[in-house]
Amino acid sequence: MRKTYYIFMILFAITFISCNDGLPWVEDCSDYDYSDCNQIEPDSTNLVIKATVDNIHSNVPITIYKGTVDNGIVLYSGSMIQSEFYFKVPVNENYAVKAIYKTGNKTIISVDGDFVKKKSKRVCDANCWAVVNNEMDVRLSQ
């Protein structure tokens, strides 16, 4: 019985801690100013693509896919010359990004992807909206 109680408490704590979704957490609505609450339901967002752009890799070829890298539709193909790149896409879709790094005769391919979705939360007397999973990280690991 005691073991079940501890397992339940640990699962509850993990669930509670993992609920940070970019939406405000408000307990007192009497003076809430709604500045951190996007009340307009998003239909699109920017994919935030992060790549390693440095002295060795100053021009990184990337491809953005709707769907997966293996069988998705190519939305964009180009090069990154800065470490962040923004590309507007509709929400509630699966996206993937592929970056190709070349050093001498060595090629490294980095891939990231996720389902970009919108979430809402009732805060006081408003629905607050956020977009999650819109960052794609194709940086080289250090």
Characterise this structure.
With 142 residues, this protein is mainly β. The relative contact order is 0.24. The chain has one helix spanning 2-17, and strands spanning 44-50, 60-66, 73-80, 84-90, 93-103, 106-123, 126-132, 135-137. The chain contains one helix and eight strands; from the N terminus they run αββββββββ.
Can you give keywords for this protein?
mainly beta, 1 helix, single chain, 8 strands, elongated, 11% helix, three-stranded mixed sheet, 142 residues, five-stranded antiparallel sheet
Summarize the structure.
The chain is mainly beta and 142 residues long. It has one helix at residues 2-17; strands at 44-50, 60-66, 73-80, 84-90, 93-103, 106-123, 126-132, 135-137.
User: Strand percentage, roughly?
Assistant: over 45%
Low-confidence stretches: 11-20
Tell me the overall shape: elongated
Separate helix tally = 1
Helix content: 10-25%
Trace the largest sheet across and list its strands. 3-2-5-6-7
Number of strands: 8
Largest sheet descriptor: 5 strands, antiparallel
Helix/sheet category: mainly beta
**What is the typical, i.e. mean, pLDDT?**
86
Order of helices and strands: HEEEEEEEE
Terminal residue distance: 46 Å
What does the radius of gyration come to?
20 Å
